[in-house]
Amino acid sequence: MITQLQHAKNGHLTKEMKAVAEQENVSPDWLLNEIANGRIVIPKNINHDFPPRGIGNGLKTKINANIGTSEKRCNFAEEIEKMEESIKYGADSIMDLSTGGDLHLILNKIIEQSPVMIGTVPIYGVATELLRAGKEIKQLDPEDLFREMEYQAEAGVDFMTLHCGVTKTSIEFLQNDPRLCGIVSRGGSLLKRWMQDNDAENPLYEHYDRVLDICEKHDVTISLGDGIRPGSGEDASDRGQMAELLVLGELVDRARERGVQVIVEGPGHVPLDQIEMNVKIMKKVCKDAPFYVLGPLTTDSAPGYDHIVGAIGGAIAAVHGADFLCYVTPAEHLCLPTVEDVKYGVMASRVAAQSADVVKNVKGARQRDHIISKARRELDWETMFEYSLDPEIARKRKKESESGEEDYCSMCGNLCAVKTDRGKS
After folding, report:
1. What's the distance, Cα to Cα, between the start and end of the chain in Å?
2. Which of 18, 107, 149, 256 is deepest in the core (most CB within 10 A)?
């Protein structure tokens, strides 16, 4: 199998590249060059049939929505509803993070029903089955992890979060620079515990060539996980985080040499004044690989409103070069999100993405704002609704107001500034 990256390096424009170029309104030849240089990826497993989407430099900022069962709440129908709601409101990808129920059955059903790319974190399933068997994390067999990756690749997973940068060296830097919150990444914490209990190196790093073998075979995009990401603003940009990033830069090079597509995941909790620096350092160290961020979360003080916090950080990160935003829902840090939480998370990230794309002059972003602004001037409500990020809610709020059938809103009534300025009564 030849991957999208290998095709691009050979100068071959694939049907997936043509579809993305048309979708993004960019030159196919320009897109080909960006993919060949690793600045854009098209995560699409050869075993998953869906309309491809591109992530990276010069393209629309993309949105990921996390779904998945848990040990405490395992309702598969609800997770499918979350997936459908996410896609309805504009998510470009879905990550299945399930840890409850029949994990392979759930994953296969999600892949089968999803019209967008699917991501996973393979170590979740391996650790879940281990604990179900009454064993401890130190008993995890690395061979089980590689078998799980192979299974998911054959099933059609398009990108996998792999915490390859949690190494003996990066952990040593972390331990020599004490943190408030330690490691908050589930995958990162599992690997750190296994490594310390077994006095061994991270198998995903030590046997990275096996990772590349699996991903090359099925054209799975590697999402290099930030296993030592900060879990509080106080821990942001510390030595452990930066030590891991240096390892990820090395692994980006190795993936590209093998023709495997790769993106890099970024920090979770970062104060406003450090976001630009974090994005630019990552882009420098990882040679402009597409950057995938959770939030970032700019304050730790808003449980229940973290979708807003994440949107603030996401907009700033995207302005400075982040390409892929993982949504944050109001349930973050509190509980498994509901279907409604998922909608709010996707919409908050879409607002962030649109705000950033206007600044980055991504094709179509400024035009969208222009059309809505012009429609407001003309009191053309239907055009405003049509081009809104959420036409349904915009139309509903207007129609259900006291001036639902009028050409003005119930806020200003006949004192509408637009009508006054235009001399319209």
Report:
1. 67
2. 149
